[in-house]
Design goal:
Layout (H helix, E strand, L loop, with lengths): L8 E9 L4 H15 L3 E8 L7 E9 L13 E4 L2 H7 L8 E5 L11 E5 L1 H7 L6 H13 L4 H11 L5 H26 L9
Parallel strand pairs: 1-4, 4-5, 5-6
Antiparallel strand pairs: 1-3, 2-3
Helix pairs in contact: 1-4, 1-5, 3-4, 4-6, 5-6
């Protein structure tokens, strides 16, 4: 499912609470688009009253043409890693949008569009570092939406994460990416009416 064709512009909101690496995830998305995929991109970041634990979001626009207004009003992709973040932006979702959530942290109700869930924080804990949940979610988002290429994301992650953690962050991205591909495959099988063991 590619959201890139729509108006040559993809509007993305990544939201959660401080300390989850929300702004970094947005920055990696924007840099991947501009440096790796040679598109135009903008990033607007907003923090709540406290940086750690307060609400925050990153608004990213990726476009084939120059971007004149950097704020996102109608996100085609909403990545929610906190319930408060989801509650704040869910009303802006159109029927053709895509919602991605951390399934242990967000319980979406009456979602008007396609939505996908991944236990990103739990998967990061299993890798030994809860702080990599944002990178897992980034991989998941890349697989589901194709907003950026995985090659561009890989290159940007290596440049963006602390020295010495590059391999572990790439592993985290790949886990999220593979989970996304498996999720899409499972949906295709269900849509085709096939039975048998499906990847959740």
């Amino acid at each position: 499912m590619s959201t890139q064709e729509k108006n040559h512009q993809t509007e993305i909101i990544v939201t959660g609470f401080g300390g989850q690496g929300i702004i970094m995830a947005g920055r990696i998305l924007g840099m991947s688009a501009s440096l790796g995929d040679h598109k135009e991109s903008t990033l607007v970041q907003a923090y709540g009253p406290e940086s750690r634990g307060g609400a925050c979001n990153a608004q990213v626009i990726i476009s084939d043409v120059p971007i004149h207004y950097p704020y996102v009003n109608n996100p085609q992709i909403l990545v929610a890693m906190s319930q408060a973040g989801y509650d704040k932006f869910a009303a802006a979702l159109a029927p053709d949008a895509v919602l991605l959530v951390d399934q242990d942290l967000v319980n979406p109700e009456k979602v008007p569009c396609a939505h996908f869930a991944i236990p990103a924080t739990r998967m990061a804990e299993n890798l030994g570092n809860k702080m990599m949940a944002n990178i897992i979610m980034l991989g998941f988002c890349t697989a589901i939406t194709e907003a950026v290429s995985s090659e561009a994301a890989h290159a940007t992650i290596v440049q963006s994460v602390p020295k010495g953690t590059e391999e572990r962050n790439i592993e985290a991205f790949n886990k999220g990416f593979d989970y996304g591909l498996s999720t899409l495959k499972g949906r295709e099988k269900r849509a085709a009416g096939q039975t048998g063991a499906l990847v959740p």
